[in-house]
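User: I'm new to structure prediction. If I give you an amino acid sequence, what do you actually give back? Let's try with this one:
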Amino acid sequence: MKKFQFNLKALLSYREHLEQIAKQDLAKVLGEINAVNDFIAECQSLRETTLEELQIRSETGISALDMSRYMDYMAGLEQKTMEAQNHLQHLTQLANRKRTILAEKSVGKKAILNLKEKRKKEYVDEVEKFLQKQSDEMVLISGTFVKQKEGAI
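Assistant: Good question. You get back a string of structure tokens that encode the predicted 3D arrangement of the chain. For your 153 residues, that looks like this:
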């Protein structure tokens, strides 16, 4: 009997490739989300540190020009944080779309894999039936041979 071969192997490989690309796209977006989260945390940390410095300098005395610079710097940090949060929201929506695409690609691949398993099972069942039939025929032939041998004696 010939060995089992899946005739949609190329399609399965293609679907696996599409799923891998979708995984890479999702991973890229998730990496960007992590980077933006890190940036937001850094900006908030800088803002807190600057606020502490400003309080210390206010107690010891600070010029109006320096106070203005601190306020401008903190406003800039706040602006960058807001922009990063907006970008984070956009990336989160993009990640959700990428997850949906990945799920679709995974379902497509799984459908082909299920078909492959079904066909392989059918093949194995067919081979088992064939082997059982051969075995039955061999028993029948050997039984007939034994009866003929007994009849000759």
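You can read the tokens as a compact description of the fold. Here is one thing that stands out. Helices lie at 9-60, 64-152.
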